């Protein structure tokens, strides 16, 4: 009977009549209340399950459109804010221009007495290192907005090379110059040892070679690649007020054993900083500004240690916050590099302005006392007591000699002939022995 009913099909008063599994199959009219009245907005054909929205008035929706049956999702690549990137890039470019100016001045006035004594070739390397450090700020700010994903790995490699070599060129020459001062003034003998510039460049070449070796092995064995990390999703509204699920992702440089490679490079740089601190401390009392940069190096090293530690901590803690991480790391790099540039070249620029032709009298180097004011006062008091005692003893000896001279002169005047002189001599000798015996007793 069900089969017969399913085969039934005819046109009735309400339209075509059909049955499927005992249920009537027909057309359905969809209506909506609009302005208090029921209005036809669509027809639904149950047989083929088609909804025809063209058979009636347009549907009126509350809000800007039909309600969503699911979340709208959107993938978003996190990047550094444009304003932050523009600000720090401008500061970095300004730093590059200042470092280039210092480099040009140092080359132009390399024969000036004050600059020549401070090894201008090493100062040139410091300026080049500062330029590379400033450029690293630009490299750290570049991301997927400017670099396609297929070229991002090359950007990672450029960052490592620029940062590593920039550090060595900026601070390596300062440590090497201080090492030469330490060797020369280890003892207060000015002609003790002569260290020529080519030896300094040889040492700098060794430091740069270590950098090249480490970074090259890293790139050959475990090259850096572009990697992404999905961050926590969140909901935000679009301009129409609809909720959109944002799926943020962060791109970064990564390799399989990046922690090991970074540990090796950080250890090498850390040993270099410790060595620089030691040399700066050892030569802190050598007082000749043109030759000795140890005071400035000490300040630079301390700033590098502080800023490097803060930078490493920030990069680890805020690795998922590109704006804060880039801003703080760039601030540390710019401040550290600017302090170094100023401490090395500012005294030379001031000297050039006050003495353009280098005609001032040469300042002789000396090693300042390591004693504090209290120790110096105690030592001076002790020295004064020793000198007073010595003066008293000398006065007593002088008085004794004067008495002997008077005694001899008196008897010489009274002696009439040579016999009397011999007699007087014997008498004086006996008297002297007696006085000596009395003195010893």
Key terms for this structure?
disordered C terminus, 441 residues, alpha+beta, single chain, three-stranded antiparallel sheet, 11 helices
Task: Produce a short descriptive summary.
The chain is an alpha+beta fold and 441 residues long.
Report on this model:
By secondary structure, the protein is of the alpha+beta class. Helices cover 60% and strands 15% of the residues. It has 11 helices and 12 strands. It has helices at 2-6, 82-108, 113-117, 120-141, 152-184, 197-221, 258-282, 294-317, 322-354, 373-414, 418-440; strands at 9-12, 15-20, 23-25, 27-34, 37-45, 50-52, 72-77, 225-230, 234-237, 243-254, 286-287, 366-367. The strands form 4 sheets. Strands 7, 8, 9 and 10 form a 4-stranded mixed β-sheet that branches. A 3-stranded antiparallel β-sheet has the order 1-2-3, with no helix packed on it. It is rod-shaped, with a radius of gyration of 46 Å.
What oligomeric state best describes the polypeptide chains here?
single chain
Number of helices: 11
Q: How many DSSP E strands?
A: 12
Radius of gyration equals 46 Å
Globally, the shape reads: rod-shaped
Structural class: alpha+beta
Order of helices and strands: HEEEEEEEHHHHHEEEHEHHEHH
Helical fraction equals 55-70%
Low-confidence stretches: 363-374, 432-441
Distance between the termini: 159 Å
Could you describe the largest sheet, including whether it forms a barrel? 4 strands, mixed
| Beta content | 5-15%
| Mean residue pLDDT | 77
């Amino acid at each position: 009977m069900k089969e017969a009913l399913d085969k039934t099909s005819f046109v009735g008063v309400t339209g075509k009549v059909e049955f499927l599994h005992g249920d009537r199959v027909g057309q359905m009219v969809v209506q909506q209340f609009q302005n208090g009245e029921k209005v036809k907005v669509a027809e639904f054909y149950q047989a083929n399950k088609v909804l025809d929205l063209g058979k009636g008035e347009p549907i009126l929706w509350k809000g800007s459109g039909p309600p969503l049956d699911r979340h709208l999702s959107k993938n978003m690549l996190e990047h550094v804010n444009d304003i932050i990137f523009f600000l720090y890039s401008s500061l970095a470019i300004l730093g590059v221009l200042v470092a280039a100016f210092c480099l040009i001045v140092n080359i132009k006035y390399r024969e000036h007495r004050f600059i020549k004594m401070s090894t201008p070739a090493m100062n040139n390397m410091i300026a080049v290192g500062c330029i590379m450090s400033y450029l690293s700020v630009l490299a750290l700010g570049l991301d997927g907005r400017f670099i396609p994903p297929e070229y991002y790995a090359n950007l990672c490699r450029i960052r490592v090379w620029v940062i590593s070599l920039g550090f060595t060129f900026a601070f390596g020459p300062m440590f090497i110059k201080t090492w030469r001062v330490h060797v020369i003034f280890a003892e207060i003998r000015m002609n003790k040892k002569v260290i020529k510039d080519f030896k300094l460049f040889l040492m700098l070449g060794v430091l740069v070679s270590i950098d090249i070796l480490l970074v090259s092995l890293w790139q050959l064995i475990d090259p850096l690649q572009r990697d992404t990390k999905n961050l926590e999703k969140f909901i935000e509204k679009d301009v129409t007020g609809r909720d959109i699920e944002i799926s943020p992702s962060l791109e970064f440089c990564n390799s399989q054993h990046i922690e090991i490679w970074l540990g090796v490079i950080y250890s090498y740089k850390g040993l270099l900083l410790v060595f620089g601190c030691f040399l700066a401390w050892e030569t802190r009392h050598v007082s000749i500004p043109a030759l000795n940069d140890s005071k400035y190096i000490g300040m630079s090293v301390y700033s590098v240690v502080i800023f490097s530690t803060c930078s490493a901590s920030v990069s680890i803690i805020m690795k998922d916050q590109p704006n804060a991480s880039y801003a703080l790391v760039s601030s540390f790099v710019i401040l550290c590099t600017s302090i170094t540039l100023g401490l090395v070249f500012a005294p030379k620029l001031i000297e050039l302005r006050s003495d353009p032709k280098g005609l001032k009298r040469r300042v002789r180097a000396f090693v300042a006392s390591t004693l504090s004011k209290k120790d110096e006062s105690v030592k001076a008091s002790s020295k004064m007591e020793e000198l007073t005692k010595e003066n008293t003893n000398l006065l007593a000896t002088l008085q004794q000699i004067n008495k002997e001279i008077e005694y001899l002169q008196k008897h010489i005047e009274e002696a009439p002939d040579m016999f009397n002189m011999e007699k007087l001599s014997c008498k004086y000798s006996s008297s002297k022995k007696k006085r000596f015996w009395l003195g010893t007793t």
